[in-house]
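cache lookup: miss for this entity combination. No prior model stored, computing from scratch. Input as submitted by user K.M.:
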Amino acid sequence: MRPSSSPEPASALAALTWACSRDLRIALRHRGEVALVLVFFLLVGSMFPLAMAPDPGLLRAIAPGIAWVSALLATLLSLPRLFAADHADGTLEQLLLAPAPLAALLAGKVLAHWLTTAAPLVLLSGLAGLQFDLDPEDIAILALSLLLGTPLLTWLGAISAALTLGARGGSTLLGLLVLPLAVPVLIFGAGSVEAASVGLGAEAHLSLMAAGSILASMVGPATLSLAVRIAFE
Amino acid sequence: MTIAAVRNHPESPDLESTESGLVVDSLSCNAGYRLLFHALSFQLPPGCWLRLTGPNGSGKSTLLRALAGLGRPAEGEVRWNGIVRQPGSADWHSVMLYQGHSAGWKDSFSAHDNLALQQALDSGLQTDRLSVDIDALLERCGLHSRASLSFSRLSAGQRHRLSLARLAAAERSLWLLDEPTTALDAAGQALFGRLLGEHLTQGGCAVIATHLPIACEQTALELDLGARTGTAPDSGH
Amino acid sequence: MAAINWFRFASPASFYPLAGKLTGLFGWVAVLLAIAGLYVGFVIAPTDAQQGESYRIIFIHVPAAWMAMFIYVVIAFWSVFSLALNARLPSMMAQALAPTGALFAFIALWTGAFWGRPTWGTYWVWDARLTSTLVLLFLYLGLIALRSGIDDPRRADRACALLALVGVVNVPIIYFSVRWWNTLHQGATISMSAAPKMAQTMLTAMLLMTFSAWAYAIAAALHRVRTIIIEREALTDWVGRLVNPVQRQQQP
């Protein structure tokens, strides 16, 4: 035995930083994959005016909903990237067996995923807002609602992605799991812009979404660890 | 050598009253609806290694995964140095190292970066342990010339050599390896044999599933899962 | 009753015969209660002043919607035991209940549509309860799809259990968010909760139908769980004896 040289388990912060920086480096080398998701977001948003008369008043009214649905679909599309590659090459297995808190490692992965998927969406929503001729204040609210709501969305998506690892049905099954759970975020996210544009103020919506995201970030790591462990049984 | 003779192996050290090494007690594992093996028990003292053989589907990989803590055994207990192992605990992960069929390397990184990242995690991300010389390790495993190439350019055998480098670097007492020498050439297999010998000399243990001969000085204890038949008893709970 | 050791029934082998006896019992209770409830609801209860005869569909719609919600909570209850105790029978019960819950959600949606048409002239209104029931149906379908997508039965058990728990936490959130969305956009004019003021007979009919639906759900789940038990325990001795009593005796 080499008892004195068995390493101490890593701290949570060190594990989170390690996992996040590793995933960010991987995303950097696969910039195309990351950009694809963002292009999809703009593409889906562009479909709606093409499918109906591009009446400016109508577009302005439906813009928040379309932006949010497009963001939802784009996030959905990017979710397999979170675990599928690591599952296939055996890296996820090694994460499960590492002398580090699994919840922290997975939280690092989710953080990196949010930084490379949702955060750019927040910026791109400005473009989407311009496409639909939204007022600058409304565009700001839209971006803020995406910023506050996407963490919750990412956690729901991550848990669903972990549960569907190795299951048949692929992205469609993932969509069936994520979309119903995402209904509240959708309602409050799109609703916040509408409320602001009507003059009712978006504080209530935004606060609720912020609370949801904070709660999800607290409960998410442990739930995600359980989901990933289940996937390897 | 059969399991019954493990305790009586002439080369194994005298077992003290407190257990040392790996003890597997009445382990049963399922795969889907099938019972793979039932009430498996063996003891692996320090400095010894166990060769796991058996036909495909006999449960070698499942046993290794159950020992590592990836699958849930239907029943049974695994003890290390007398203490019951908690699957999923970071302490257990500090003691053992598992390498399965998938090598566990990212194609996007070079061999050097892959090893550096994994070794950092293996050492528990302690800053004082990060001074391991990656280049020296790569050189020992014959990957020095390919260290900075993208991993996808390496052959299967070269990728497996990186796994050997990881074994050499990680300070673990128990190795759980699933077919570690497949895809390795003769030089690679000899290297593995040397690494295993060093590990055992320092008091480590290893459970290795393999159908290839392993050139190691210490003789292996044998466990043939194909020779065991498992019948499903009336299910209790 | 007091001396029965209930934990004896925690093993699939001993639960199987019990489930068989109870299925028949609950099935008959369901049928009798349904006959009583439908009689009271469709024959005895008075015609509503505003909605005429078409309101009577609520005697099917409301119990179905309640049961759809209730069954999901029961599935979550079994899922807690499934994860905490790592036991098989709670997972099997959860698996057996999901299709029944989905069926009730589906019935609630259809009967809601049939109510909406004569009452408000449209088959579908995006009111809070109907929309929540629709999302609930999708949650059920997700549970069923995840179960069939994972091959390993124990892994499927635990994955579905976790999904059910994540879902049950979200169900009230979904319901309240949909209600908020609904009141913002449509006001309270078109709403399924604007049911006619309940005369005593209407309430009686509603309760009878609800208990009938409850008994049916139990009967259907027990019947389904027997099939699941046989399928999952197919390689054990007791199932072998069940299927081939003569042959088993002849084996050494």
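stored under new cache key. Confidence is low (pLDDT under 50) at residues 1-17, 230-237 of chain B.
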